[in-house]
Amino acid sequence: MVIAAVVAAMVLTATPANGKPEARRPEVWMNMVQLEPLGRPGARWDFVKRRLDVLEFPINAVAFLMPEQDIRGIVEQCSRHGIKIALECGYFDWKSQTEDFSAPSPKGITDTVRTTMAPGVGEETARSEIGKIQNLVRAGAKIACLNLDGPVRRMLWPGSDVGRGDIPGLASVDLCVTELVAYMRTMVKAFPGLQFYVLANFPNWGWRGAPSYWGGMFYGDYFDVLRKTLDGCRAARVPLRGVTADNPYEYTIGMQPHKAWAAMEGEAQPTKQVDPAKVDWMARLLDLEKTVKSRGLRFNLIINSQGGGDASEEAFQRTTLKYMETYLAAGGKADGLIFQTWYKFPSKAEPEDEPYTMTNLLKVAIQRLEAGAAR
Q: Which residues, in sequence order, are bridge partners of residue 298?
């Protein structure tokens, strides 16, 4: 089969001492809020932890939700098995009501949407997030990279996470990039050797003049935003490693129900309605990948399913694996595949041999990537 041939071409014949296949397959990442069980005695994810490349923590789970003993247990497992640790963070449009994160977790999340966005937000956000991860640092974690979740979007359109379009953002993409650079520099001072990815909620942007999934440019043309971001980071010599695309399966095949979001300023209604089923969204995603790699950077793709994540454990796994297969068959060559859920399902991290847990999904996906058995 075509998919099997594509996946087989990515498999290596040799396996090094740490058990991870050498990289002709993509890096495999995992990210979910309910990671706590992975660090507890008796946790069953032996296959996955021998082969997982990156475990990514959501920063607010670290700051507010995960008991410190669970964090220590996970860090110990990552260290033992050579798993890199990453964080999804960079929440420029949110502000915590406390700078003291030393109280034991779990505790209440104190973040609220910023009501103003002004110069200095980059350094301020970095200093707050350095505080948020001190329990991870105390556990001995060596943080390899940060995945910055929509940094330009958050500074241009603060409050969009909660449906607010009335909070003024920074006046230009260039100003956003200046603050992004300030954030990176502050973080690198605290954690030398740290690298960064910028994450794009890709369906919510236009691309090369073509409208977003919702019609119109919505947040803007990401081709222009990406160019300015990459140029600005290169000029500032900050360690930008690559770009991550958040593009759930249903958007990639044009099947996500099409309804306009709250209008952005200057766009009373989306101006160019599109029929999602008539657009080749996969081709657009692959063009983003090509564009990123043409700049000598790495490209990560978040592999998940919004419809599956809202429906059931089984639906999430089945549809997420279908996404992986479809993307690879279309010629996708991401450097990293990030298996991530922020949905209702899957609700359990482990055990890996129980159908439809998160580590069970990772086990199946890794087996298919390594054996060339995707179908």
A: 242
Q: What tens digit of pLDDT does each residue of 4-45 get?
A: 444 444 443 334 444 554 447 899 999 999 999 999 999 999
pLDDT for residue 2 is more than 50: no
Number of domains in the chain: 1
Q: How confident is the model at residue 64 (pLDDT cuts 50, 70, 90)?
A: very high
What is the phi/psi pair of residue 239, to 5°?
-80, 65
CA gap 80, 74 in Å, rounded: 10
Amino acid at 159: G
Reported pTM = 0.91
Identify the domain containing residue 323 by its residue range: 2-371
| φ, ψ (nearest 5 deg) of residue 32 | -155, 165
Distances in Å between the alpha carbon of 180 and those of 129, 184, 288? 14, 6, 21
CA 281/CA 332 separation, integer angstroms: 13
Residue 64 is classified by DSSP as I
Q: What is the CATH number of the domain that holds 261?
A: 3.20.20.70
297 backbone φψ class: left, alpha, beta (φ>0; ψ -120 to 50): beta
Residue with tokens 């990442």: 29
